[in-house]
TrEMBL record:
Signal peptide: none annotated. It comes from the Bacteria. This is Bacteriophage phiJL001 Gp84 C-terminal domain-containing protein. Residues 194-276 form the Bacteriophage phiJL001 Gp84 C-terminal domain. It holds the Pfam family Phage_phiJL001_Gp84_N. The lineage of its organism: Bacteria, Pseudomonadati, Pseudomonadota, Alphaproteobacteria, Rhodobacterales. InterPro entries: Phage_phiJL001_Gp84 (IPR011928), Phage_phiJL001_Gp84_C (IPR018964). It comes from Salinihabitans flavidus.
């Protein structure tokens, strides 16, 4: 890390007054500032609050491509990091930036760490969050996968399909919900059964606003339309909350052509030979029948 000249001179005096500051930016864009100093500090348009009880253990950093990591410890607070937000997954993958700051001269600071939040543990009114460095991303396998099904996510840059096209999304109020996983409507027409299977349900308002789930099944029963998610949403959804449901895609060649008319962007290889073709070998006499050879 490169130290600010003023901070470097201050540290060389042997009598220091420094503090650590953290900025946490959630994936929904909401940012929080924390410091282990005993009063609030402000710079870069962010106020780093002192009353959050946040602190950090030793930061492990190294050269090369090995992973930097540390942990942050703090108290759960409704005004900062609440147990409900952690349970809902709102801090999963949040971006973290950390500085070492001369609290008497705020301009004298140096950047310590940038990464994301990994595993979060909570107990006894406190939380412990694993902070993963930027090199963590290098542990993920990358590259093109050659397979028959499409590898794109419906609506992403590779797919190129506009989910706001008429007939491919529905926005409506929740009428009934069971276990935060099964949603029911007495009247929900205009889409054939199964249209939303493998699609995405996103909550637009209420306590679970911003959360999403993947649709497991979409069908009609004697009480109306039923949409079931693979896993319960991690916050409470109540009747009257607005949700959006996007059409589902099963990644097949035929679905891309007939349901979405998006064949030009299909990211799979439908003509890829199967294992039986790869194991075939030429024979000198006649047709290979699978029988014993004499």
């Amino acid at each position: 890390m490169a130290f600010h000249d003023g901070l470097k001179a201050h540290l060389a005096t042997g009598t220091t007054h420094v503090a650590r500051c953290w900025k946490i930016t959630r994936t929904d864009g909401i940012a929080f500032g924390f410091t282990d100093h005993d009063r609030n500090l402000s710079f870069g348009g962010v106020t780093f609050k002192a009353d959050t009880g946040l602190s950090a253990v030793a930061l492990e950093q190294s050269t090369g491509l090995s992973v930097d990591n540390t942990e942050a410890l703090g108290a759960l607070s409704d005004a900062a990091v609440s147990e409900a937000d952690i349970e809902a997954g709102r801090f999963d993958g949040a971006e973290v930036e950390a500085w070492l700051v001369n609290w008497a001269e705020i301009e004298e600071r140096t950047f310590l760490f940038r990464g994301t939040i990994g595993e979060i543990r909570r107990a006894g009114g406190a939380f412990q969050a694993e902070l993963r460095g930027l090199t963590e991303a290098l542990n993920r396998p990358l590259g093109r996968i050659f397979q028959k099904p499409c590898t794109a996510v419906l609506g992403d840059a590779a797919c190129g399909f506009d989910l706001d096209s008429p007939g491919y999304a529905a926005i409506r109020a929740v009428e009934a919900v069971e276990d935060q996983r099964v949603f029911r409507w007495l009247s929900f027409s205009g889409f054939e059964p199964g249209w939303f299977t493998r699609g995405r349900l996103s909550v637009q308002s209420g306590a679970a606003s911003g959360l999403t789930g993947i649709v497991k099944r979409d069908w009609f029963d004697e009480r109306g339309r039923v949409i079931e998610l693979w896993a319960p949403l991690r916050a409470t959804v109540q009747p009257g909350d607005m949700i959006r449901i996007d059409a589902g895609c099963d990644k097949r060649f035929e679905t891309c052509r007939l349901k979405f008319n998006n064949l030009v962007n299909y990211q799979g290889f439908p003509d890829l030979p199967g294992d039986d073709w790869l194991m075939a070998h030429p024979v000198r006499d006649g047709t290979a029948t699978g029988g014993s050879r004499r």
